[in-house]
């Protein structure tokens, strides 16, 4: 779609002062998908030269905001850690064409803040942290589960940039379980639940997204039983937190959230009982 109110596209490397009507341009798959009458200038991040995926000395993984879904998918297929299948599962949750995969970015998916954003699901489930950079150059770190505060709402300040998301080494060594539900065979996620089991101390985390307006990550020091998990979800997710749109009513999303969370819990609990390392 032509954005006929945009008068200029600037290179982000120039670090020019932020103006009203500015927007960061990553892959542009969202920006050019619908009218953006409030925009006057796009600040293009494509020439920043950020390495898409970088391993830290501590075993962590830093994913640049400009990393495309295609790059993440290729990396996941070559990745040796236990969580490798989860990368592809979340990439496939896009249900998008190869053209979108080659342009859409991890950072763009997070910054849209949409409940069905699978990169939000992936990075929240793996206890990721967002590195944010202000217009003055100062940096701050925010957990992914705190970065998205509601449907389309984020903690970004005016002109603030999402630089990257870092996944800790401990999370990359976890066993994972993935469940997704949609009203249609090739529809947007109505509920997406990811579970992680730490082989070191048997702690478990269950992350509910898509069904809710923001991701909810529930952590347990030991695998919970069915009742404990249900009570934890009921305490964390309020009635108004279940999302409502054409892709699913709140009642259905709530039902699927509980159902998929229990399936994830059961799968990972069985691994724990079997002593899988």
TrEMBL record:
It comes from the Bacteria. InterPro entries: Diverse_Substr_Oxidored (IPR051312), FAD-bd_PCMH (IPR016166), FAD-bd_PCMH-like_sf (IPR036318), FAD-bd_PCMH_sub2 (IPR016169), Mopterin_DH_FAD-bd (IPR002346). This is FAD binding domain-containing protein. It comes from Streptomyces mauvecolor. Residues 1-172 form the FAD-binding PCMH-type domain. PANTHER family: XANTHINE DEHYDROGENASE FAD-BINDING SUBUNIT XDHB-RELATED, XANTHINE DEHYDROGENASE SUBUNIT C-RELATED. Gene3D superfamilies: 3.30.465.10.
């Amino acid at each position: 779609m032509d954005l006929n109110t945009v008068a200029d596209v600037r290179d982000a490397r120039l670090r020019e002062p932020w103006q009203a009507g500015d927007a960061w341009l990553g892959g542009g798959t969202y920006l050019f998908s619908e009218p953006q009458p409030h925009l006057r200038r796009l600040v293009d991040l494509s020439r920043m030269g950020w390495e898409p995926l970088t391993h830290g000395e501590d075993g962590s993984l830093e994913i640049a905001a400009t990393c495309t879904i295609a790059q993440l998918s290729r990396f996941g297929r070559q990745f040796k850690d236990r969580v490798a299948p989860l990368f592809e599962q979340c990439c496939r949750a896009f249900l998008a064409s190869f053209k979108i995969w080659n342009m859409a970015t991890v950072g763009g998916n997070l910054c849209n803040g949409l409940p069905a954003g699978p990169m939000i699901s992936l990075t929240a489930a793996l206890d990721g942290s967002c590195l944010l950079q202000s217009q003055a150059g100062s940096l701050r770190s925010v957990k992914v589960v705190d970065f998205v505060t509601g449907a389309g709402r984020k903690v970004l300040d005016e002109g603030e940039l999402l630089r990257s998301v870092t996944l800790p080494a401990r999370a990359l060594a976890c066993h994972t379980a993935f469940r997704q539900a949609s009203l249609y065979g090739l529809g947007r996620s109505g509920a997406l639940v990811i579970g992680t089991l730490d082989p070191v101390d048997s702690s478990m985390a269950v992350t509910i997204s898509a069904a809710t307006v923001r991701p909810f990550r529930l952590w347990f020091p030991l695998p919970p039983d069915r009742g404990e998990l249900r009570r934890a979800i009921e305490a964390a997710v309020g009635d108004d937190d279940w999302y409502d749109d054409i892709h699913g009513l709140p009642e259905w999303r709530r039902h699927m959230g509980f159902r998929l969370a229990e399936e994830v819990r059961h799968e990972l609990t069985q691994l724990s009982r079997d002593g899988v390392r």
